[in-house]
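Tokens as discussed.
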């Protein structure tokens, strides 16, 4: 299954090792998912993991390891289409990544933003728990 994990899911996996978001990340590392990323997401990930309010919760080495794994092992979507569908314009690149990467699902924790859309261009937008349920079937 080809999946986009929103940056908030990746960051949450670093903050709560062993939690649901980390279980999704580990499912990718175990080969149970194909993870789609983009240069835009890698830049956002770098920026967010350096926020002063998050730094006490994210070991720099863990953030660096995740970034390197994403760069080396995830499918990198290129030539993202222009999208203007998210209630938060800063999330439009995530929808574009899902389209360019031919994702079968976009996973986010963003209830008022991306989750409110439900789907985009026939790509379901789901919660972490919803995708974990799918994987456990």
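Sequence:
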């Amino acid at each position: 299954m080809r999946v986009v994990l929103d940056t908030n899911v990746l960051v949450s996996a670093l903050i709560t090792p062993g939690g649901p978001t980390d279980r999704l990340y580990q499912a990718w590392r175990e080969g149970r998912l194909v993870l789609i990323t983009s240069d835009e997401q890698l830049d956002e990930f770098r920026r967010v993991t350096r926020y002063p309010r998050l730094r006490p919760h994210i070991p720099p080495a863990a953030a660096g390891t995740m970034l390197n794994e994403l760069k080396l092992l995830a499918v990198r979507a290129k030539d993202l289409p222009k999208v203007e569908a998210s209630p938060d314009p800063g999330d439009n690149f995530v929808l574009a990544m899902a389209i360019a990467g031919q994702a079968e699902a976009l996973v986010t924790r963003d209830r008022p933003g991306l989750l409110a859309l439900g789907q985009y261009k026939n790509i379901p937008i789901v919660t972490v728990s919803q995708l974990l349920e799918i994987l456990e079937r």
